[in-house]
Amino acid sequence: MATLSAPDTVSMDPNKLQQVTGLFNQQIESGLHPGAGLAVYRYGRLVLDINGGTADTKTGRPVDDETMFVLFSSTKPLAASCVYMLKERGRLDWDDPVAKHWPEFAANGKGEVTVRHLLSHQGGFPETPADLPWTDWADWSKVVRAMEQAPSKAPSGAVMAYHPINYGWVIAELVRRVDGRTFDKFIAQDLAAPLQMENTYVGLPPELDGRVSRLHLMEEDADPNGYADIFDRPEVHHVICPGANGIATAGDLARFYAMMERRGSLDGAQVLRPETVGEGVTLQVEGIDQSLDLFAQRSLGLALADERMGKSTGTPLNTFGHGGAGTSIGWADFDSGLAVGYITNGYRGNDNNNPRLAAISQAVRDACV
User: What is residue 9's predicted lDDT score, i.e. its pLDDT?
Assistant: First the structure.
């Protein structure tokens, strides 16, 4: 693992940071998305926090400092960090079967699925249950029952296959079983509060509905699963779905990654120990993901060396983070000291989404001195 860089070495080229802002605005003006937020930390210090465009094209409501966005799968690393905390506290181990803490989960061939398998998408139960529509997600007993009855499609640990929604639900119930608190309370009290992430929720309070940007489907064929419609609904924002329905500002997302880049501490708050962060970002599996049909490198809840995070000038596997379906990217890089949160509200397919995210990430990298 790279050596922790000293915060007093922070240096960004002001002209190139202006170019980052220019590119950010250009992407909005060219119609890639109606609105977005972008925040950047370097060595734990905030160096850029901007937003712009329109939050709701039907009403003309602008994106402003109070605007929160749907994170989609950019929620997943935040959920994983809750498991990191429980591991650090001695409440579970990476190689514990999930069923050790949740016996009913062993049904239908899942008895050997470990926490490590879960976090690295090797659990073998990737398919979101067809008999659990979004209208049932608010009923936690139905969610838990569906995860217990979810059938194993492959032996645990044998296949890497992305679990888009099930990942988060199993984490949430595992946290509840081990800690006793519901997931929304755990993440609020043990992650968001210490890090002063005051605009981050998994289970949004209804009174904050008006601060959430709408989702805008930019290409009719970009969303075969209907995620843009489902996750644009306030009713879905209110439920616990830690694989996909986190709500946050770009500043909060970047702040999470700044904590990770600083090996678990930020602004005097220690959330994780350095060795726990080190375990969390260590490569676990690589190859063709059988759900996505794409090459992937994964640690415990994080993607490594993803093209949407720009090109590292150091060790590629020292860059870690996660994207959100059709919209966003969050990442950090131990070598450059960068931590980035970039969230758009325009849902696009990979051919258009990945380049716009990578362009912003690379522009941020290029601004380092």
Answer: 55
The gap between the terminal CA atoms of the chain, to the nearest Å, is: 22
* DSSP 3-state of 312: coil
Which pLDDT band holds residue 10 (cuts at 50, 70, 90)?
A: confident
pLDDT, tens digit, 9 for 90 and up, residues 314-336: 999 999 999 999 999 999 999 99
SS3 per-residue string spanning 49-71: EEEEEEEECCCCEECCCCCEEEC
**76-88 helix and 250-261 helix, angle to the nearest 10 degrees:** 40
DSSP reduced 3-state for 12: strand
How many other CB atoms are found less than 10 A from the CB of residue 8?
8
Does residue 212 contact residue 137 with C-beta atoms inside 8 Å?
no
- 89-120 as b/e: b if 16+ CB within 10 A: eeebebebbbbbbbeebbbebbebbbbbbbbb
- Alpha-carbon gap, residue 69 to 212, rounded angstroms: 6
Residue 16: left if φ>0, alpha if ψ -120 to 50, beta else—which one? alpha
Strand pairing class (45-56; 61-62): antiparallel
* 115 to 63, 167, 174, 301: CA distances (angstroms): 38, 11, 9, 10
Phi, psi of 316 (to 5 degrees): -55, -40
Q: Identify the helix (H) or strand (E) that includes residue 347.
A: strand 346-347
Closest CA to 40 of 262, 315, 330: 330
AA identity, residue 60: G
Residue 279 has a pLDDT of 98
Give the C-alpha separation, 369 to 362, whole Å.
14
